[in-house]
Amino acid sequence: MSTVSDAEPVGRRRLIGRPSTWITWAVVAFFFINLAGVVGSVVVKSFSTQWFGTWWPAGFTTQYWSEAWHEFDLSQVLIVTLEASLAVVVIAAVIGVPAAYALARRRFPLKRLVMLVFLLPVMVPPIAYGIPLATVLYKYNLANSLTGVILANLVPSVPFVVLTMTPFIEQIDPKIEAAARMCGATTRSVFLRILLPLLVPGVLAAAVLVLVRTVGMFELTYLTAGTDSQTLVVALYNAYYGAGIRAPQSTDAMAVLYMVTMLVLLVIALRFVNPTQLVTRVADDRDSNA
Amino acid sequence: MTPVTSPAPTVQRPAGTGRPALSHRLAERGIDRTLLLLLPGLVFLIVLFIYPFLYGLGLSFQPPHSSDALYNYKKFFSDPYQRDTIWITLKIGLPAALINVLAAVPIAYRLRGRVRGKRLLTTALVIPITLGTVLTAIGMIEYFGGTGWLNKILIALGVTDVDHPVPLLHNYWGVMLSLLVSGFPFAFLLTLSYLSGIDPSLESAAATLGAGWWQRFREVVFPLLAPGLAMTFCLNFVLAFSVFPSAVLLGDPERSTHVISIAAYDAAYQEYDYSKASAIAMVMAAVMLIVISVVLFARGRLYRGSSGGKG
What we know:
Strand content of chain A: under 5%
Radius of gyration of chain A: 24 Å
Order of helices and strands of chain A: HHHHHHHHHHHHHH
Helix content of chain A: over 70%
Largest sheet of chain A: none
Shape of chain B: flat
Oligomer: heterodimer
């Protein structure tokens, strides 16, 4: 990346011409103005006393925030969200990192097939496999519970950890492990004293990405959650879907709570990863030093 | 975790006493105890991904009230209300994915080098993705509504009047806009990362040889970017094809945005007919696979060279 930009003299940009620059930034600005409108409407409404047909609400209050907290039992919802996503992160890391190690270090017959198995759940959209998955979970009485939510969310998370960690482990030089063994280290101490410290940054990045994805995962949680195992995003959807008698401000307050949760997670995530990594499924080592 | 050393069978054998030990021969092909580390992950996915999928496939051929194995599929394709969900979904998903990719290319191309504010822009674009479809839908209900800010602005600008706000909710456009809001940043960031994978010296070389910016884009950058764009389109299409929360909250879920995921959901959770729901989920997966394989087949015919980014 660093050599990339050196090759782009300022003169190049002038060739593209002024109008295209203006159009580009205008499109980007248009997108963000509308995005700000979308997000801003919810935030303003959640604090408003009454807002109908005017540019700005008549007054501001935090009354609906406390109403929302009790009405939707948000402390329970937040606890469930926290439990489910932490369980998913830990289990996905415990299952996924060893598999990534094997995939990064070994070539073996059928490796492509194994890679395909790990790739599919990330490629196929949740709702397509979520329905058969939920059916199976209901059959074994695992759905409608926190267990079901955790199991369902692990399905895309385990492959995600594998796909993020494999390139990360590939760039750890295997000679370090070999050297440790030459010096008489046991498997245990190679793992604990050589591999683990080297793995920590990669595992943290993968974990925080899984956390963001799990808290934001609507479909799989929606299909498997019971009334007392809803995560925040599912509770939010249900509140809107069944809207009516409640003051709209309290559902908006919940929406803002969800928004704040996600943004906090995003800020944490961006300390560990590049923005593009939140999108692309596989860590891009080319961009990581940008 | 026993890499590198497998000390046991390397001892010299007397000539003619047959082949080395099985474990040694396997290790030569890369099969040793390290592969056991794969087992938990593989078993997990077989149990919770492959098995449910096959179970759903089997279930879809076992309709509860009929002995005809293909009953669910026949019913789906003979009932226009059900069958049309495919077209409705394609009609939303294909244009949405196409618009997102087409809008992302010029903007990403402009920003491929070192541009001021690039990090800020990419970070800001992650926000709608992080917020997710549910929150986007909720915000759009407020913002695009008849008394929302957007219509207020349009009325103030004289585009429309108070009695005829621009209808952007509970129809096709609401769903389409929500797919643009969540899909565009996704397409942009992917395209940007593909673009930064293209060696800029190729473009410099073309410039040295006298190519203008359009010629450079069309003959150097675009061919190298095309495989990545195909992938971006596919991933965007997959997202758009499985649109669910926004189709319910922003669309007209009974009619014009009765997408296939709503049909599958209703079959499972309104009618409790898991057999029918599985059949619809299978149709959904099949249609998606067809579109993706068409795109990827076309992509296979494109140039895939060493400098083509992560094609």
